[in-house]
Amino acid sequence: MLGVVMTTFYDVPANFLIPALAEQLKSNDAIKMPDWADVVKTGSSRERPPTQTDWWHTRGAALLRKIARQGPIGVTALSQEYGGRKNNGSKPNTPGVGSRKVIRILVQQLETAGLVSTQSGRLVEPEGREATQLYNGRIITPAGHKLLNEVAHSVRPDVEAAYSGLDKY
Length: 169
Known about the structure:
The chain is an alpha+beta fold. The protein has one domain (14-158): Orthogonal Bundle (Arc Repressor Mutant, subunit A). Helices cover 41% and strands 14% of the residues. Strands 1-2 form a two-stranded antiparallel sheet. Helix 1 (14-26) packs across helix 5 (142-162) and helix 3 (75-81) packs across helix 4 (100-112). The two termini are 16 Å apart.
């Protein structure tokens, strides 16, 4: 007899996983939208702030998924992931980066919630100065991995209804 196979967050498309994960993050007290977040742009290539009311939790859910898939990853690499095309007028468009402040605060909140942790890198010991610890970036914790897999398992019936033929996997 075959055992029950648990659905992982790799098995579910992002457009199903991220909204459901955002709803889970709304119930977490450590992840709250700051007062300034309703007037801030999410990147240098944007002209206006987001119009959605729950964009903070949606971005947090997307960040958690991205850290789980690509970690260890730092704030700068994440800001490049959430960038767009910067309009330079008559000159060619160049890559624009996402707001590092928004990403940094959200990653810190995810770290406070226990879903993400910092991975230590090497220790630099220059002569005449004290040692400095370098970090490789953020990685997902077992609690964050469990949350992602639970949400993926809960949205699996919706995915199977939307994409027929997935039930054999």
